[in-house]
Amino acid sequence: MQIVGALDVHRSQITAKTLDLDSGEVRYGRISPVTRESVREWLSRFAPGEAEFALEGTTGWRFVVEEIHAAGLSAHLADPAETAARRGRKKRAKTDKADCDLQLELLVAGRLPESWIPPAHILELRTLVRTRKALLDERTGWQQRIQAQLFHQGVPRGIKLRTAAGRAALAEAGLSAAGRELVTLGLRMLDVLDRELDPLDRRLRAFARRQPGCKALIAELYGVGALLAPAILAELGDCRRFSSSDDVVRHSGLDVTVHESDSRRAAGRLSHQGPELLRWALYEAAQCAARPSSPDYGYFLEVQERIDSDRAFLSVARKLVRRAYHILRKLGDDAIAPVDDPPTGEVALAA
To answer: Read out DSSP for 304-327?
Structure first.
């Protein structure tokens, strides 16, 4: 007996639909509360190797896939945007049951747009690099908030908020009472964020020094260091799943989309469909192309003169992701090979 199923995952419940390919029997069900234990109990009705399930790659998919694999069953992770596109024009209200119907239909027909399911250590790495990016964004937000308040109160520009000289200048700045309170609070927040970032940065650097994929990216990509390499590796993952470097550019969201009809052609824009963190890491690395020592310096100047600096950096970023694809693909299994966890907690702080 072979069973195929579809799961629509939400925080309050998981809607399930199964189809017995031998008898044609269809069953609907619901898993609630949405916990590992509930999912594990529901899956226990299937013998190992008896069933395979499709679910969309939305928030919550990780623990469900882990439980499916732990039960000896197969999981297929569907790309949410591609799955929705294959629904076609909506003719009726969208429901959880309808979502299950669509996923199961696509799975049986072999048309399910599947996403790569990363191994556990890559998922852990993604969590770390995305946490770091969130902290960086928070720090940037506070810096901008402080600088805006200083400008609003007529303080001359140029004060470096994270230096001793800058702090001394702020202490002498003429601010209103409320403005002084905001700046003081902002400086405390910057210090807190720096304290949280320091051990995380050390951990990622230690990982990058030992992980084969990161080591190769650092060695062969100008501008990619020990903090950007883990981010690129985590978001690209196993590059062997891409058929060409063009696919990697599309995956990163750095491809230019153009709407064209007859003689009318709209200006191209970045698709921005893909991991935001990957685009950020590539753009950060691409900014090093403005250095004369960069191998892409000539190309950067040519595009800068022809268009502008921002487009030049984006063009270099596309080159970088293509090179990263070839570097990681050449490494094979070693590209995403796990390494022993670096020291954590108090041990990491003392390292």
So the answer is: HHHS-HHHHHHHHHHHHHHHHHHH
Strands 269-270 and 26-31: unpaired
Q: In whole angstroms, what is the distance from residue 132 CA to residue 280 CA?
A: 12
Note the Cα 230 to chain centre separation in Å: 12
b/e sequence 316-336, b meaning 16+ C-beta within 10 Å: bbbbbbbbbbebbbebeeebb
Residue 107 is classified by DSSP as H
- Written as one letter, the residue type at 87 is R
Output the CA angle 25-27-31, nearest 5 degrees. Answer: 155
Element (H, E) at 257: strand 256-257
Residue found under tokens 């883990």:
230
Q: Strand 74-78 and strand 51-56: pairing?
A: parallel
**Rounded (to 5) percent helix, strand, coil in the chain:** 60, 10, 30
∠ CA 154-155-160, rounded to 5°: 150
φ, ψ (nearest 5 deg) of residue 193: -65, -40
Which pLDDT tens digits describe the chain residue by residue (351 residues)?
599 999 999 999 999 999 999 999 999 999 999 999 999 999 999 999 999 999 999 999 999 999 999 999 999 999 988 888 888 776 666 788 999 999 999 999 999 999 999 999 999 999 999 999 999 999 999 999 999 999 999 988 888 998 999 999 998 888 999 999 999 999 999 999 999 999 999 999 999 999 999 999 999 999 999 999 999 999 999 999 999 999 999 999 998 776 555 555 455 677 777 889 999 999 999 999 999 999 999 999 999 999 999 999 999 999 999 999 999 999 999 999 998 754 444 334 333
The whole model's pTM is what? Answer: 0.87
DSSP character string of 43-101: HTTSPTTSEEEEEESSTTHHHHHHHHHHTT-EEEEEPHHHHHHTT-S--S---HHHHHH
The distance of Cα 74 from the centroid of its chain, to the nearest Å, equals: 24
- Whose tokens are 């623990």? That residue is 63
